[in-house]
Design a protein that fits this description.
Strand order of the largest sheet of chain B: 2-6-3-4-5
Oligomer: heterodimer
Distance between the termini of chain B: 42 Å
Helix content of chain A: 40-55%
Helix content of chain B: 25-40%
Radius of gyration of chain B: 19 Å
Number of helices of chain A: 23
Pfam families (chain B): DUF3726 (PF12525)
Strand content of chain A: 5-15%
Distance between the termini of chain A: 34 Å
Protein name (chain B): DUF3726 domain-containing protein
Number of domains of chain A: 3
Largest sheet of chain A: 9 strands, mixed
Largest sheet of chain B: 5 strands, antiparallel
Shape of chain B: globular
Number of strands of chain B: 8
Largest interface: A-B, 70 and 50 residues
Order of helices and strands of chain B: EHHHHEHEEEEEHEH
Chain lengths: 558, 214
């Protein structure tokens, strides 16, 4: 949606960062969750609107097999997580790519399911991709136990003791989702069916709600198994330990092309965040509340960074930089920050740019947004996109104008020699086995002739060459008639002209391109923490760690 | 990548499957590319298939029919539709003067493109072919009379609709479309023409090597 008419701070525009600075993978790969992240938006709305929660079905046996239903009851509509708990042999849990069975499977139902709905879902949800759901469902997902931690927690609780806090911190979750499908996948409701609902307008709200309720299910399940095993001796999980648990998630390359295939959506995510930063930088003063809020946010970030572990060398370097940066920022905020200047928040930001690595700069961004809810939370309403509106090509655009767009927004792409190995080393493709995006090595692996059109820079450069010698005043419709192969690049260029944060300004087929940078950017917008790459192509993260549970939300349990 | 769609038989009596619009879009995009069309055509054709499904029309028959037409044929409604929308804002637009498209196959597949032209120009358009008529009011579902699903080739006329009284048509509430299992198999087979077997290296990078337990 357009939020231009709602902008209370037109003067903030001059504090906005340039897309050439923001839309680089090195910086996107340092993204941190902010209060505009999608799970934060969900939690804020549910708390503000006094949502209630209950668990009308809990039919799980002593082995942890059965079904449960969790309801989130909003002011107008109810959503229900339908959970199926399975008895999964350990050997079936060991491979995430070819998995066909999981410890638990879920669907988010639109309303309150009746007995027939539950039977229908029981016949399909456990099958995941091999089953079908309907437009009554908003998401389909599955999760596996963190075996070591799950068993440890059940054992301890069953014997009347709390689990080892260090073990809980180390893993951070009892279950990790391996896929959360929404938006029409496998027969689920299309996004268009629910986007008019205020609670679903922000991106991925159904998926976030599903994962948040899954988190409650994982704790209920360990406590249930502990009671079944320990009887009267069993105890419940201590609230502080419980709060520190999130839901893990394994995410791979399937997520990466999303940011490229949805340029308007990406623009709106980035623009909302950049506008938020600009509004904060434009403030004339620093109030006591905001200054304290900043320091609290920095302390939370320090604690998060202390607990954040990764075995991946790239991430280890980033974590070292992050911890060091946060220490520097704390010292500067306490001792060096000049609050008397005309735009003190801008001064803080500029100090960060001059003194911090990218990891520290982006962490500073998240901390600066944190105490400014009243100023920026409304931007959350601007993070969806009606992509269909921007699909048509403007065939009347003159060649001269298209050329100017390429010069203004694609300078990073136009002068690259895409015949050089290092600039075309990779190709994106759809895997035959999972129908998921993958990344191949062009000169070592077969299949490059079936490449996906994610080589945005190379396509833009080819379009630029096609414009050479064309009359300035010729309509681009004539170019497309003669050279239709440039259609995708031309559409992207026209979109980028209107949405300057739409295009990732990097060669996405280069030898040194890191897919995990794409993943971290997207996952930060989700609100994910503890980003932990397991290769350059897939990661583990945690969602909702430290967040409230349904019974902490104030609206109470129905 | 070339695929002879016309040779791919499918049983029209097979039971219907219900697909969400996003499934129709994803399947169509990949199938069109798998049939040897450009990515630009695949994007446009997928968008058109979703539009037809949303309007309650037989998108699958039309799409498979379009993919049976030789690539680069001047009688392809996908190619013709792209040109019509690209020229929407130019003097030669169908919103200004009637255009005649001879020997067009599956003229119904032209509807989404005509509708987009109507939306861009704000001008109601009329599409006629062999007794079938579609009135396309900007932003509204098509108002249809006659059999718009004819396979052709037919002469199609597309131009401004000047009548003051126009039948109005509402979009169906359902965001889904149907396809029979034979057609689904046809489009799936085309889709598989652009997939690549995962290499061992690719699988390992994606996380298949080693245990995922922790």
């Amino acid at each position: 949606m357009s939020c231009a008419g709602q902008n209370p701070m037109l003067g903030a525009a001059r504090f906005r960062r340039d897309p050439d600075e923001v839309m680089r993978l090195a910086r996107m790969g340092c993204s941190h969750p902010t209060r505009l992240s999608f799970l934060r938006q969900l939690l804020r709305r549910m708390r503000t609107e006094g949502w209630r929660f209950d668990r009308p079905v809990w039919d799980i046996d002593a082995q942890g097999v059965g079904r449960a239903v969790y309801r989130a009851i909003g002011p107008v509509r109810t959503y229900s997580l339908v959970a199926f708990a399975h008895d999964l042999p350990p050997e079936a849990r060991s491979d995430r790519v070819i998995a066909t069975a999981w410890d638990a499977t879920f669907a988010l139902y639109d309303g309150t399911p009746d007995a027939d709905d539950l039977e229908r879902l029981a016949a399909n949800v456990p099958l995941q991709e091999a089953g079908r759901i309907s437009s009554s469902e908003l998401s389909l997902s599955r999760a596996n136990r963190s075996v070591r931690l799950f068993d440890h927690v059940v054992d301890r609780l069953a014997s009347g003791m709390q689990p080892d806090a260090a073990m809980l911190l180390e893993t951070g979750y009892l279950m990790r989702t391996t896929a959360v499908y929404g938006s029409g996948k496998f027969g689920a409701a299309d996004r268009a069916e629910v986007v008019d609902r205020p609670e679903m307008r922000a991106p991925f709200q159904a998926e976030m709600l599903s994962v948040w309720l899954t988190r409650a299910f994982t704790v209920d399940l360990v406590e249930h198994l502990a009671r079944a095993r320990g009887g009267e001796r069993a105890v419940r999980l201590a609230p502080d330990l419980k709060r520190g648990l999130g839901v893990g998630n394994s995410t791979g390359l399937g997520m990466a092309p999303f940011l490229i295939r949805h340029p308007v959506l990406l623009n709106n995510w980035m623009l909302a965040r950049e506008e938020a930063l600009a509004r904060v930088r434009a403030q004339d003063t620093v109030g006591d509340v905001e200054r304290t809020g900043l320091q609290n946010a920095l302390r939370d970030a320090q604690e998060n960074a202390r607990l954040w572990a990764s075995a991946h060398p790239i991430q280890q370097t980033k974590l070292t930089e992050l911890r060091s940066s946060l220490d520097q920022i704390m010292v500067h905020v306490a001792q060096g920050w000049d609050l008397s200047g005309p735009h003190p928040w801008n001064a803080l930001w500029r100090w960060g740019q001059d003194n911090l690595p990218l990891e520290g700069q982006e962490a500073l961004l998240a901390a600066m947004l944190e105490p400014h809810g009243a100023l920026i939370d409304g931007l959350g309403d601007c993070m969806d996109a009606d992509e269909g509106v921007h699909f048509p090509i403007d065939g009347a655009m003159r060649v001269a104008d298209l050329r100017a767009i390429l010069q203004a927004h694609y300078g990073w792409a136009l002068d690259v020699d895409y015949t050089a190995r290092e600039h075309c080393a990779r190709f994106w493709y759809i895997s035959e086995d999972k129908l998921e995006p993958r990344l191949g090595e062009r000169f070592d692996e077969p299949g490059a002739e079936r490449e996906l059109p994610l080589d945005t820079g190379r396509q833009a450069a080819a379009l630029g060459r096609a414009l050479e010698g064309q009359p300035d005043d010729m309509a681009v419709a004539h170019l497309l008639l003669a050279q239709p192969e440039h259609r995708p690049a031309l559409r992207r260029a026209q979109i980028t002209a209107r949405h300057p944060f739409a295009e990732i300004r990097e060669n996405l087929i280069a030898a040194d391109m890191l897919p995990i940078d794409l993943l971290r950017c997207k996952l930060a917008f989700f609100g994910a923490t503890r980003f932990d790459p397991r290769s350059d192509r897939w990661v583990r993260i945690s969602l909702f760690q430290g967040a409230p549970y349904p019974d902490n939300m104030g609206g109470g349990c129905a | 990548m070339m695929h002879d769609v016309s040779a791919m038989g499918h049983a029209r009596t097979a039971p219907a499957l219900h697909l969400s619009l996003s499934e129709i879009g994803a399947l169509s995009l990949r199938a069109i590319r798998g049939a040897g069309r450009s990515w630009g055509e695949a994007e446009e054709g997928a968008e058109a298939a979703c539009w037809l499904a949303r309007a309650g029309l037989d998108w699958a028959t039309a799409l498979i029919g379009v993919l049976s037409i030789p690539i680069n044929s001047p009688h392809c409604p996908l190619r013709a539709g792209m040109a019509i929308t690209d020229f929407s804002d130019l003097p030669e637009s169908a919103s200004h003067c009637e255009q005649m498209l001879p020997d067009l196959h599956h003229p119904g597949f032209l509807l989404p493109f005509a509708a987009r032209t109507a939306a861009r120009s704000g001008q109601t358009l009329r599409l006629t072919s062999d007794g079938a008529t579609a009135i396309l009011v900007p932003g509204e579902a098509p108002a249809l009379t006659g059999d718009i699903n004819a396979t052709g080739p037919l002469t199609v006329r597309l131009g401004p609709h000047r009548a003051t009284e126009t039948a109005r048509s509402c979009w169906p509430r359902a965001h889904s479309g149907t396809i029979d299992s034979g057609q689904y198999a046809t489009l799936t087979a085309l889709m598989l023409c652009i997939t690549v077997p995962s290499s061992a290296e690719s699988l390992a990078g994606a996380g298949a090597r080693g245990s995922d337990n922790d």
